[in-house]
């Protein structure tokens, strides 16, 4: 039994051991049975994942000793069981946020954690990702944050992200595909290499995330009737309307909504909802505000705003386009995320969070 069995076993076990409140499981590869304390369920060694799940199910059927604290999978490792605090809008949910070390993703991580989620911060920026996880875990809450270095454009990396998530927390309830890159430019400026890179991260990356996240969710949900999980793409208002001299980004986001609608049709029978959130511009984040390569600087250089002479001119132009009179914030986006998680009937939607710039038709 290898670590690649995590996602093939633990999501099912998580539901088998849960009653009214779904539990958190933490896997430990240490096979020393003497180190266990408290109530322990022993499960005989099986090489096949399905057989191991059945062995666990049979052992649980015979359990009559009270509150279970550990499961000892002989020859594989042991699993610590814990009951999350039932406080917060996403209390006890296991949530992955790609691009979660900073920017919109970092804000999403902060809010989900404050509302009780167990959060996996997935990002290429290891320094910032670990720093954020450490800061969150120092708040004295019972839920935890965990960093995984991940490249959403690579299948092996995304697959490993899911394995690490399941090993750390036992399952997966919410996957937020937020990681993305943006380099503005019209047909004259855009190179085939940049076009391919952006498409690989922004479009193919979403496919890879949905592919591997849904496999773990399907298994988990099949062991608990009426339990819903969510795949949420952080899209953009550029996915709702074309964007001048920004076609590479807009094209990937338009395509992302097509993926969302198609994934939703395929996955709803497995109680997996799939939705896109389409934020307006986050003017205060590094994507826009970075003094060297932020969008304000890029758009000024690309001449996207006629007559603009300074970065301040570009920012003023974009603020004036918003009926709400300001840019989008992580809290605005998180409120939309809460909505799609809490309801059980909407799937395949592209929810605009644009201050009135884009409206559903």
Which descriptors apply to this entry?
single chain; 361 residues; alpha/beta; Rossmann fold; 2 domains; 7-stranded parallel beta sheet; 4-stranded mixed beta sheet; 11 helices
Report on the structure:
A hairpin with a 3-residue loop joins β3 (70-73) and β4 (77-82). Helix content is 42%, strand content 16%. The longest helix has 31 residues, at 192-222. It has two domains: 3-82, no CATH class; 94-281 and 322-353, NAD(P)-binding Rossmann-like Domain (Rossmann fold, 3-Layer(aba) Sandwich). With 361 residues, it is α/β, with parallel strands linked by helices.
Write the layout of secondary structure elements.
Layout lengths: L5 H11 L7 E5 L11 E4 L5 H13 L8 E4 L3 E6 L11 E5 L4 H12 L3 E6 L2 H12 L7 E5 L5 H15 L4 E4 L14 H31 L6 E6 L12 H21 L4 E8 L6 H4 L5 H8 L8 H10 L9 H13 L7 E4 L8
Parallel strand pairs: 2-3, 5-6, 5-8, 6-7, 8-9, 9-10, 10-11
Antiparallel strand pairs: 1-4, 3-4
Helix pairs in contact: 1-2, 1-5, 1-6, 3-11, 5-6, 6-7, 9-10
Quick recap:
It contains eleven helices and eleven strands.
Give the structural class.
alpha/beta
The CATH topology of the largest domain: Rossmann fold
Q: Beta-strand percentage?
A: 15-25%
Pattern of helices and strands: HEEHEEEHEHEHEHEHEHHHHE
Low-confidence stretches: none
Helix percentage range: 40-55%
Please count the beta strands (DSSP E, at least 2 residues each): 11
Major sheet details:
7 strands, parallel
CATH class term of the largest domain: Alpha Beta
Number of domains: 2
Q: CATH H-level name of the largest domain... which superfamily?
A: NAD(P)-binding Rossmann-like Domain
- Count of alpha/pi helices: 11
Overall form: elongated
Distance N to C terminus: 51 Å
